[in-house]
Amino acid sequence: xxxxxxxxxxxxxxxxxxxxxxxxxxxxxxxxxxxxxxxxxxxxxxxxxxxxxxxxxxxxxxxxxxxxxxxxxxxxxxxxxxxxxxxxxxxxxxxxxxxxxxxxxxxxxxxxxxxxxxxxxxxxxxxxxxxxxxxxxxxxxxxxxxxxxxxxxxxxxxxxxxxxxxxxxxxxxxxxxxxxxxxxxxxxxxxxxxxxxxxxxxxxxxxxxxxxxxxxxxxxxxxxxxxxxxxxxxxxxxxxxxxxxxxxxxxxxxxxxxxxx
Length: 261
Ligand code: NAD
Hints:
By secondary structure, the protein is α/β, with parallel strands linked by helices. Helix content is 46%, strand content 14%.
């Protein structure tokens, strides 16, 4: 028997969802019937067009709300402007790579703000709405770097480890309520962000595309295959399902075996 999940009547807010994993998760949640709120820090016609496309494709309500996840007030305003928040997906994230002694302090601050503190602010604003509705799901998009480290990614690894701690703490604070808090830990996912790194890496290592993908990018991903944004969406839907009602304070790795190494 096919296993289907209906999220009809639920409102899902996905931060950082005009691209990549966030957009993929928003599309899959809409496909399961949820009304969705897309977000980024820009306010372009293309942002609103994405929401219109999702509404048209899936017959749900979809809106785009601009809010910069580096600003605590805007994080909280995003939740309030949405009017409802049954499912909160904290996904917005940026990256910067440098040795720790050369890591620009401003980049450290931005990564901690966007990749970690934003989830604190949105969660704090969303929990009263979830309690009022009597149901809630918090899904934090962490990373394999929430469980393990790599050199030159001090801020990213610190933020992703931090969001794992936030995930667990919120799970304990909501444990007796019909609210769960979990993380998804992707390995390498072929998003526009990752695709854009391929030409430079090909030039740097003088390798063809396939060799760069296999030997450089997926060096630590034993499956030697990228995870997909649809798989992230499917994992989020599972965490929103009744089957996952007792899953809280933990993470699901979707990393082709990276963290099994
Ligand atoms: P992406 O660059 O394709 O998408 C990031 C999204 O966040 C975009 O919509 C962007 O506009 C938005 N964003 C950036 N700064 C923002 C801000 N200040 N306020 C609001 N929105 C902002 O990246 P992605 O690869 O889809 O990554 C999404 C999440 O998944 C991140 O948290 C990232 O750390 C995590 N992740 C990605 C991978 C991967 O391989 N792609 C692996 C593990 C974890």
